[in-house]
Amino acid sequence: MKKYEITNESIEFEGKTLYRIKALSDFDDIKAGEFGGFIECEDNLSNCDKCWIYDDAKVFCDAVVRDNAKVRNNAVLCDKAMAIENAEVSGNARLNGNSYARQHSTVTDNARLTMNAQAWGYATINDDAFLQKDAHIDTYSNWITIPLYKESEIIVTAYKTSGNMYNVTFSNSPHSFSLEELERKVEVCKTEEEKKHIERVVKEIKEFFDIETE
Fold first, then answer.
1. Rama region for 97: left / alpha / beta (φ>0; ψ in -120 to 50; rest)
2. pLDDT for position 214
3. Most buried of 1, 20, 31, 153, CB within 10 angstroms?
4. What is the Cα–Cα distance from 52 to 119, expressed in whole angstroms?
5. Helix, strand, coil percentages in the chain from 3-state DSSP, rounded to 5
């Protein structure tokens, strides 16, 4: 028996037509007749267990929500991303590029996961965190966000990868760097002010992860 149906209410989003869902039966905190978020097709949301897409959240492009996972608010899952087991994705969070949230993890606020990034265990990924390239986050001690400079809108995220390496992203760039590459950037900074900010960020990252400074 199906627990939801796809309604005729549709929106255009990132080049895709998405449809609002409607519950057909009572389960968990959902009542029959209650509307949910948007999906592209039934492959995006399992009809089993207690998983649900709430509010105006959107799941499409081979992304999957299953088990008891919850996707809320304006969160977006696409490009083979997954929310499974007891994970929760909310706020304006975005998962794409084969990334996934699993177990009891939470991804919220403006956090972004892409390029095989994984949140699991009881990890909470929040604020403006930007995780990619095989990030494996299972605890709060595996990642940190730092403003590039005071009152800056550019946020630096440092995180531990599955290979026990440390990568760094900038919120205004799609690329990631190893911590060693970031350190080398100090040598080519165009101004003393820029050099000072990068050196401070590197220092904070090393202190957070307890990395010895040569």
1. left
2. 59
3. 20
4. 19
5. 15, 35, 50
> How many C-beta atoms lie closer than 10 Å to residue 50's C-beta?
15
SS3 209: helix
pTM for the predicted model, two decimal places: 0.91
DSSP code string of 133-150: SSBEE-SGGGEEEEESST
Distances (CA, A) of 46 to 8, 17, 43, 49, 98: 19, 19, 7, 8, 18
Over residues 138-143, the mean pLDDT reads: 86
Region for 47 from its dihedrals, namely left if φ exceeds 0, alpha if ψ lies in -120 to 50, beta otherwise = alpha
- CA proximity to 11, closest of 65, 62, 56: 56
DSSP symbol at 86: T
Type of residue numbered 53:
I
Q: What is the pLDDT of residues 89-124, one digit of tens each?
A: 999 999 999 999 999 999 999 999 999 999 999 999
Tell me the backbone φ, ψ of residue 65, rounded to 5 degrees: -120, 125
If residue 181 lies in a helix (H) or strand (E), which one and from where to where?
Answer: helix 179-185
Question: Is the Cβ–Cβ distance between 144 and 169 less than 8 Å?
Answer: no
35-39, strands of its sheet edge to edge: 4-13, 16-23, 35-39, 58-59, 76-77, 94-95, 112-113, 130-131
Q: Give the residue extent of every domain in the chain.
A: 4-138, 143-209
Q: How far apart are the C-alpha atoms of 175 and 37, rounded to whole Å? A: 31
